[in-house]
Every structure is written in C-alpha cells, then in structure tokens.
Amino acid sequence: MADMILTEKNLVSRHSMLELAEHWLIAISGLILFLSGMFELPMSNRYYISSVPGLAWSADFITSLYIHYFAAIIFIAAGLFHLVYHGIRGENGMIPQKGDMAASVTIIKSLFGFGKEPPMHKYLPEQRLAYVGMVFIMAMLIISGMIKTYKNIYAQDMSLTVVLMATWIHNIFFVLFFLAFLAHMAAIALRPNWPMVRGIFTGFVRLDYARHRHSLWIADIEKVDLAQVAEAPEIVLPAIEAEPLPELQTTLLTHIEGEPTKINDETTKQQEISED
Amino acid sequence: MNDQKIAKMGRRSFLQITAGAAALVGVSLPRNAQADSNSQLSTIIDLSLCDGCADRETPACVSSCKTINKDKIPKVVDKIPEPWPRKTIEDWSKKKEVTNRLTPYNFIYIHKAEIETAGRKQIIFVPRRCMHCDNPACATICPFSANHKMKNGAVVIDQNLCFGGAKCKTVCPWEIPQRQSGVGVYLHVLPNLMGNGVMYKCDLCDDRLKEGKLPGCVEACPRKAMIIGPKKDMEKLALERARQINGFIYGKAQNGGTATLYVSPVSFDLINKSIQKKPGQPDMKQEVVRRMAGTDNPAKAVLIAPVLGLVAAGAFGWFARRKEMVKKEGNNNG
Fold first, then answer.
1. Residue A259, class by beta-carbon neighbours within 10 Å (0-12 exposed, 13-18 middle, 19+ buried)?
2. A57 at the B interface (CB within 8 A)?
C-alpha cells in the first residue's frame, strides 16, 4: 500500500495491514521461540520456574520443543514472506544507504541534546542498519535451527562437525537475538521515537510529527500525489482549483463541535515552521 | 584413517562375532554381514547365558568396563561449587567402588532378578547399561551437542563440552546418564549459576571400536553372553535365538528401537516386576514410548516453512500487482 496523508485526521499511513501482520507474526513467534528456547536449557527446574503455578510445563523439554517448532513455522514463513514480497515489489526503504553510519551517529548524538537531527526519510538511518542486523541474526538462527531440526528427524548420526557448528551458531545468535530485542526496546523507550510506536500498532503516525522529523518522506509522498494529479488532470484539477489546499482547509475550517482541536493547532504551527 | 580402522574392526570382530553367534544359535551369519560392519552396530545380551559371574567378586563385564574407564573422569575439585538456587551436588568421587548401580564411575551393573514361574524359582542376571537408542533424545536435544550418536550407533558424551545440566538424564526413559559435579567446563564459566558437572554413561567403547577392538564388556564376558555386530544381522540373530529358546526380546521396539537387544527365556514383564526402580537402577517396562516421535510432524512443517513463505509472497505479490494494474487501467479509462 502506498503511504497516504490524511490531513483532516493529522495522520499519515506508515505501515499497511500486511506489514503490521508481518511485524507482529515475527515479533510474537520470535518471543515464543526465545522463551521456549530458554526452556530447552535445563533451567526451569533448577531455577524453580516450574514451581510457579501454571508454569509446571516449562520443565518438560518435549513440550517446549513442540512450542518451539510451532513458533518456528510462523517465524520462518513470515520472515521469508517479508523478504521476498517486499523484494519483488522493490520496496527497499529499509535497506541501508550510503552515509547511514555517519547519520546514525549524528542522530544518536542529537537524542542526547548534542546537535540537530538531519531531515529524514520514512526510516531513520539507524533503523535501516538495525534492520539489516536483525535480518542477519534471524537468518543465522533459521539456517542453524533447520539443520538441527533435520538432524532430529532424519539424521541423528549427522556429522558431528556440522551438528556442533549448527548448535553453536544457534546458541550464539540466540544471545545476539536477545540483545537486538533489548536494543529495539531501548529505541522505543527514547522520547523522540515515541510517536512512531503508534505506527506499529495502528499503521498510522501523526502528520505533524512526520512533517517535523521525516520531512523527506512526506516530501516523497506529496511528490507522488502531485504526479498522480498530473497524470489525470481532467478529473482532479478542477476539484483542486475549486477548493483551498488541504492544509489550509484543515487549518482554517476543521472544528470539532465548533472548537478548533489541539491537534490542528499543532498542525498549523508545524506548517508554519515548514513554510518558513 | 578412522574408516580404515573401523573396516579393520569389522573384519576382526566379525570373526569373533560369528564364532559367538554360531555358538549361540548354531547358525552362521549371512555372508554379507562383513560388508555391512562399517554401518550401525548392535549388541545382543543373551540372558539365558549370563550367570552374573557368580564365581567372581565382580562380574567380568563390570570389572572390564571399570578398568577401561578408570582414568576417564578428571580429578574432582576440592571444593565443589554450590549450584544456585537448587543446591543439588552429586559427588561419586569417594564412592568409586560402587558396582550395584549406574554411577559416573560405573557404566554397567548386573541386576539379579528372582522370578517365580509355575511354582519354580528362577534367577536371571541382567547386565544394565545405556541402550544406545536408534533415535536418542538424550543426544538430539542436548543444548550443546555434547552428546551425539555416531555412525556406528554409539551414543557418546563429550565430557569436554558437557555442562552437566542432566537434560539427557531427564529425557532418557531409563535415566541412564549419571552426573559427577565438580568437573568439566562449567567450572570455567559460571559454576554457581550454570551447569553442575558432567554426565557420564557407557559409550559402547567407541574409541576401542575405532581401533578395531571390541567393547570391554563384550570382550570380557566369559560366557559369550554379549555379542556385537552389524545391526541387521544382530536383529536377525536375536529373533532366531528368541525363537530357539521360546524366549523374549527387549530393546527392539522400546523407545523407537535401540542398538541393544536383550534375549531372555522369561518375559520382561516378570523381570520388570523383580526390579524396584531406584536412582541408577532402571526398570525394564515394556511400554517405552519415544516421546520425541510426536514432534516429528511439526519438525517436518518447520522444514517446509520456507516454501510456505515463498508461495505466500508470490501469491500476495501477484494480487498486489494485479490490483495496481486494474487501478491504473481504471484511471486511464475514466
């Protein structure tokens, strides 16, 4: 789905329903894999986790294995779907670009009050770098996990070297996956990123936030909108000529029960800033 | 190099196996047995022949095993770290002489089964050790792959990789592996928080097999009650022997199949009734389900999950493109 500005609601669509489904399927199955993977270590009984009411099952390695396999089916299928679907559609906004490393440093410094953030695209440079890191971690977990799975069903006497490599890759990337998850949570905890959180739940972020922080993204959307308008002038142009620009309309005319909304006030300010 | 050694073992042991087998059942092994000896091995333990070495202080198989493995476990640290929060420490280093159960220092013991059938008392001696399962959960789900099934069927724990979490013991239907605390790699990581020693059990004398020798217990048995050979031949032989003595087999079906086939003149139900299951003294119940078998189908689904993802991506991609084309055509026509 192409990103869309809903000026009246002060929103801009950031993720389609499909993207939300991909994210949450991978996130939830990933967390289940993490927990059931932890329970594949002999820790539940030792740490009395199995004594907690409702968690007795966690000491049973075979139960955890069932859970691990079911979650892995979703994790692998959704992960591959994501890569291939967006790959064939040429949606590469999360692929790192030249200069992302330096830009990430500038942004991280600005989060702590040093310097100013540069204008940004839909995804932040550090988001793009983190994305590639996570893809790599997931890929290693999936490949090593599948070798282990194949061994469990078909080849218990598989070459010990291969089994050891798969096992240690799986264990090391299991730790890296957890660290990457912590980093993901830490990024959400940073105040400037808060407005993006609603995006991953609803698919939309506030337009004033997007204009302020992701000005290059909004400019792209508006460029596309204008191009579409130019492609079909006989229908759209008269409507545009007959009415004020959407932003102006929002600023001047949108009221809820006769009173201007606070959001619209903010929108107005943002627009003034950007016009300056 | 190893392959050559195994092949050598195949030829040498084949002769001993054949001699033992011929004595056992009065038939010779099929001719192709020698060619198969590089593949998975199996042992037969004939309970009609084992007399528990009544004339010896320690049964020959037990004492041979102890001699071969006497230096296997490194010196246990003086002060074994106390695990946290569950404070279980298992230290057998001062009870190395125990031979009536499985311990980290004793990988085989003899169970004496006193059985009464039709008013007649009978004593059966049952050597007990790791069964070397065909699909050993203890090995396949070891979190560090410290436990592995070798090509020859031996299930072997690498004491340099084992953390002693005892997961292998928990998933083993006979709870065979035994822990020695205060040794192993865990001492160098987080000894109080992670791991608790090393798990030990029979490894079918894998090193000896690779050198072309027989497992210690098989070699030492004065009654030739134990023999080892290619799995298919051993299964055939066990069936033949059971038929000959109108007896019973244990280990072929249990836990999805094992590389240890007990042949007995009395039923294993009766033998099992004579066993009081205790730590280090496993029972012999007939019904031993391989619990991991249930996970095979979900595991197969894991292996085809990438195809699911690819097909779904292709289908969604096609629909999305088609939707865009229809929209574009609509715009052009409208």
1. exposed
2. no
Total residue length of chain A: 276
Q: What is the CATH number of the domain that holds B7?
A: 3.30.70.20
Q: Supply the range of the domain harboring residue B205.
A: 2-289
Distance of alpha carbon B20 from alpha carbon B13, whole angstroms: 10
CB A33 within 8 A of CB A68: yes
Which of A186, A202, A218 lies at the terminal end of a domain, its last residue?
Answer: A202
Q: What total of structural domains would you count in chain B?
A: 2
CA distance A145 to chain B (A): 9
User: Taking CB atoms and an 8 Å limit, are B316 and A157 in contact across chains?
Assistant: no
Neighbours of A104 (CB within 10 A): 18
Both B163 and B25 in one domain: the answer is yes
Q: Report the alpha-carbon distance of residue B241 to residue B264 in Å, rounded.
A: 9
Structure tokens at B313: 């991506």
Judge whether A125 and A97 are in contact, CB under 8 Å: yes
B140 to chain A: which residues are within 8 Å by CB? 151-152, 156
Confidence of residue A163 (pLDDT cuts 50, 70, 90): very high
What pTM did the predictor assign?
0.85
Res. A239: pLDDT tops 60: no
**Both B125 and B54 in a single domain?**
yes
Query: pLDDT by residue (tens digit) across B50-109?
Result: 999 999 999 999 999 999 999 999 999 999 999 999 999 999 999 999 999 999 999 999
Domain count, chain A: 3
Instruction: Provide the mean pLDDT of chain B.
Output: 89
The residues, ordered by sequence, that sit 6+ positions from A226 with a Cβ below 8 Å of its Cβ are none
Tell me chain A's radius of gyration from C-alpha atoms. Answer: 24
Average pLDDT over residues A27-56: 97
B331 touches chain A (CB under 8 A): yes
Q: Tell me if B148 and A163 make a contact (CB, 8 A cut-off).
A: yes
Determine the Cα–Cα distance for residues B45 and A105; give it in Å rounded to an integer: 69
CA B18 to CA B23: how far, in whole Å? 8
pLDDT in tens, B106-164: 999 999 999 988 888 999 999 999 999 999 999 999 999 999 999 999 999 999 999 99
